[in-house]
């Protein structure tokens, strides 16, 4: 499969000296084995910077012809790179990126294939040229080229049916399953208003071989020969969830129970949509049993049952009008994902058991004990189909709480970035008198824009923004982050931290948001550049620059 990088939108950000290289890179695409090396040699030969001429290029090629990757190693420790050096590094990386776009692939094996889509461009015009010239290949080639890989899109229902040999008759005989996402309820003058959302679906029968074949679409870089039986079982389970079939136009009934006692029966006001999803606030009252929201400051749990469908059992959380809500991202802040390292991100999401990040469970549990009435809300852009794995992980390691996820209809990068904002605005608008603590990490570009924006969009509601600086603690993260959004915000209301211990002692009920012992280095510009520049928001000792692979991990979009 060929994917040729379009260069039209990059013209505004590339330095003048890159143009000859781009032309030569395009011309040599028919000789993929020698193209990158030839381009780099020409770049080094033309450079007037002796440090660039001294650079060594190391190509790591997978034995699988379909999975070539190039990793450029900088053999120099540069204390103060000159602008010429920065531009030359960028030229070197662009040449390699351009030529690595065309890779020979072996004949495809029969498998569930993704829905064909028109490539969606993601431009870097928001990033100043001075930054992109310094980044070099710290930006993966697909990110720089603005092409969304076709295999990011999940297979369509028709493709699933075809690959599994299903017809309408066989599907109609499958039992209906319901996945209720743990929701929240707010108190109104008319009683509780409970947000009920989830997914109605059917599990198509699939053999282990069929699931293994389908898994290759979602985990193309994994070496299955290195899997244990447990790894294979998990990969099949995740894949089985991804190939479920939505049930459209399905009417739902729910039974609510409080402390084991019947509280209310609810008929959901709308049938499921064409993706099998449902999401509405539904009012209910239960006088004498469920406490009124204006009479308590404690978050109450409510059990939610779907009659005759055991999989539809879940919880809702009755949240008082006032108090503190912790909105926590999950990937790379509560669990080890490493979405910025493609191979690791895929293994950690599809094949390996979910593991908490350091001692974060202890930190959140200590906050639960310290802050009365603290409401935990877990916000992730993980697709709704795999939410059950995230729920199981969170409830096994962290305090109970409500969830927000990514609906099925959001499949492009722009929509993925927008869904977090939509979910944030919904919960802020639902609880206008509550204070919010936002917990996440710097590897998500949307977070770096949207979280500080919430301060001005919802004055007085954001009490604290806590961001793990992944580039300061993980040498594998080469993605920059933009701190310019924090420029006009009170610096006592946000903190960049390195480890869970940095934030463990904070007491939100007393207004805490900063640990004075953790140095801050916020420059209100792009930070987390190659560590030799030493501009992380939390200081870290410079290391030699090791450029990231010229490949965009689909998990950056899928699990960001």
Topology:
Blueprint: H1 18-27, H2 32-46, H3 50-53, H4 83-99, H5 129-135, H6 141-145, H7 157-164, H8 168-172, E1 177-181, E2 183-188, E3 191-202, H9 208-218, H10 229-242, E4 245-246, E5 253-258, E6 261-267, E7 277-284, E8 300-305, E9 314-319, E10 324-328, H11 342-350, H12 360-370, E11 375-383, H13 387-397, E12 402-406, H14 413-430, E13 435-441, H15 445-457, E14 462-468, H16 470-473, E15 481-482, E16 494-497, E17 526-527, H17 554-558
Parallel strand pairs: 2-9, 10-11, 10-13, 11-12, 13-14, 14-16
Antiparallel strand pairs: 1-3, 2-3, 3-4, 3-7, 5-6, 5-8, 8-9, 15-17
Helix pairs in contact: 1-4, 2-4, 4-5, 9-10, 14-15
Radius of gyration from CA coordinates: 25 Å
Name the CATH superfamily classification of the largest domain.
Answer: HAD superfamily/HAD-like
Report, as a whole number of angstroms, the end-to-end distance. 26 Å
What is the average per-residue confidence, as pLDDT, rounded to a whole number?
A: 74
| Number of β-strand runs | 17
Pfam families: APP1_cat
GO molecular function, one term: phosphatidate phosphatase activity
Organism: Thanatephorus cucumeris (strain AG1-IA)
InterPro entries: APP1_cat (IPR019236), Mg2+_PAP (IPR052935)
